[in-house]
């Protein structure tokens, strides 16, 4: 068994993770049904409930601020925490005590319907107040970690500055030793840990908290696969808020590079979306749904069993992306289609789509590199797009759901990627017939005629010169936003990261090819 442990830090991460866990729950099969292609033991842990019955809960830790969990409680139908009696709470005090409680948050009609086993009503941006409003999963009580020092959306003590997150981690870790209290019990349950997947916003205080958390993990556990999906807000905000977020993002980008084996920055920006996407950029429920389609699809090979060609480990994918260098930051994108439009032909090959090769033919040296409709890599300025030149791609990992490509094409590409002496980008492709399910908790952000219940997804991670250009844009912005005490170290560090991202590439080679 190769377990994966998930860490979730903050509201944005928990919105995304709720979609992710709902999808994992949908893969479960029951007696009389074919076995699921997903190995649930990788992401879920067995346990014993309060009544002695067997339970199955996610291998995850969920950190959020006070008020961020909505109606989700640590106690649930599977686990009832042992409550201390009043005498224990009173200790030596013999007088009267009075409890002060905030008014409880009313459960959403959707959650009430799930509890009663009835058909849930359709969700909307008005009815989704918290990520727990569309949650399908029971969590182990130890997975719920509420940070009581700060309150969600507080105007008096906002949890916005990167340094605030670092200070909070230091204070909590000094008091509790967070790894021993929270993470180590999950790790000790694993027979052979495949890796950690970390979801966190990187443009607010959670970026600082997560950076410190990963630093402690590196000190305690040494090397390992640690994939960070860093979430950056794509909405246009007032100038002061944008400047603060950019400074936070620059600090996260620099700090995470030392401790994340792969960092995938994600940001949903309304511009340039295809016609089949209809998302409200102001709704975390909507934006996280698109991010979840990418994140859940691109990591799907790490949870599969059965078909050897479709499966892969985090380590295998990481080796392809790194491409014998120090490229730890990857761009992310995906495309979606109605699976009926991708039915293979009689000879077993999938129909060719010009978007899959960006309009180039098989005579072109970069015919192996495919493109996607939805780009989730954060861009900070028009300079990062470098009009008139196509980014040079070093490596690419592609996870296909549905019949996007023929088996021969996939095998040829993967064989070439294993050849260390082969020229050109290294490409690793994994294709599964397990489609992306559209659940009742998933918003109508991907719209196709006929409203199919499942969709074909092509998800990609790439290392390219686009990453270096983006990091340099962040470094230029940081020079005027970060305090003088830290500016030199952070900006020089970002400049070094950009150089590592394009190590071994000579721009003149591409210029010669274009002549």
Automatic annotation (TrEMBL):
Disordered: where is this region?
88-121, 333-370
List locations, semicolon-separated: Mitochondrion
Give UniProt keywords alphabetically.
Answer: Mitochondrion
Give me the stretches of Polar residues compositional bias. Answer: 109-121, 342-360
Q: Which GO terms describe its cellular component?
A: mitochondrion
Pfam families attached to this UniProt entry: Misat_Tub_SegII (PF10644), Tubulin_3 (PF14881)
The signal peptide stretch is none
Function, as annotated, reads: Involved in the partitioning of the mitochondrial organelle and mitochondrial DNA (mtDNA) inheritance.
Q: What is this protein called?
A: MtDNA inheritance, partitioning of the mitochondrial organelle
What is the source species? Saxophila tyrrhenica
């Amino acid at each position: 068994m190769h377990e994966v442990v998930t860490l979730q830090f903050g509201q944005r991460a928990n919105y995304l993770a709720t979609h992710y866990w709902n999808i994992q729950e949908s893969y479960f099969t029951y007696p009389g049904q074919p076995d699921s292609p997903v190995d649930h033991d990788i992401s879920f842990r067995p346990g014993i409930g309060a009544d002695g019955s067997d339970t199955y809960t996610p291998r995850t830790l969920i950190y959020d601020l006070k008020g961020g969990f909505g109606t989700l409680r640590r106690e649930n139908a599977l686990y009832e925490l042992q409550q201390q009696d009043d005498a224990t709470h009173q200790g030596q005090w013999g007088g009267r005590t009075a409890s002060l409680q905030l008014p409880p948050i009313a459960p959403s009609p959707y959650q009430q319907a799930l509890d009663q086993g009835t058909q849930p009503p359709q969700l909307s941006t008005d009815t989704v107040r918290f990520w727990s409003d569309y949650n399908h999963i029971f969590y182990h009580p130890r997975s719920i970690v509420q940070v009581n020092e700060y309150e969600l959306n507080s105007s008096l003590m906002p949890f916005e500055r990167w340094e605030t997150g670092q200070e909070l981690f230091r204070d909590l870790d000094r008091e509790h030793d967070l790894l021993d209290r929270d993470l180590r019990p999950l790790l000790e349950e694993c027979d052979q840990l495949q890796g950690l997947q970390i979801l966190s916003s990187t443009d607010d205080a959670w970026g600082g908290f997560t950076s410190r958390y990963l630093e402690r993990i590196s000190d305690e556990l040494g090397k390992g696969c640690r994939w960070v999906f860093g979430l950056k807000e794509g909405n246009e905000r007032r100038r002061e808020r944008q400047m603060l977020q950019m400074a936070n993002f620059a600090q996260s980008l620099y700090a995470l590079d030392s401790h994340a084996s792969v960092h995938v920055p994600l940001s949903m920006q309304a511009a340039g979306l295809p016609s089949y996407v209809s998302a409200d950029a102001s709704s975390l429920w909507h934006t996280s749904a698109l991010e979840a389609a990418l994140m859940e699809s691109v990591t799907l090979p790490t949870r599969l069993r059965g078909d050897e060609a479709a499966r892969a480990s985090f380590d295998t994918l990481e080796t392809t992306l790194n491409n014998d260098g120090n490229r730890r930051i990857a761009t992310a994108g995906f495309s979606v289609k109605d699976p009926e439009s991708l039915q293979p032909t009689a000879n077993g090959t999938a129909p060719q789509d010009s978007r899959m090769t960006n309009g180039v033919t098989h005579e072109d040296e970069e015919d192996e590199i495919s493109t996607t409709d939805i780009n989730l890599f954060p861009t900070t300025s028009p300079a990062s797009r470098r009009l008139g030149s196509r980014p040079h791609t070093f490596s690419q990992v592609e996870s296909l759901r549905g019949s996007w490509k023929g088996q021969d094409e996939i095998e040829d590409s993967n064989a070439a990627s294993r050849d260390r002496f082969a020229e050109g980008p290294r490409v690793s492709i994994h294709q599964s017939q397990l489609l992306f399910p559209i659940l009742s908790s998933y918003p109508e952000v991907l719209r196709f005629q006929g409203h199919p219940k499942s969709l074909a997804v092509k998800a990609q991670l790439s290392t390219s010169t686009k990453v270096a250009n983006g990091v340099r844009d962040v470094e230029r912005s940081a020079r005027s936003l970060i305090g003088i005490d830290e500016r030199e170290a952070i900006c020089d560090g970002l400049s070094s990261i950009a150089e590592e991202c394009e190590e071994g590439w000579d721009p003149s080679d591409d210029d010669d090819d274009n002549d």
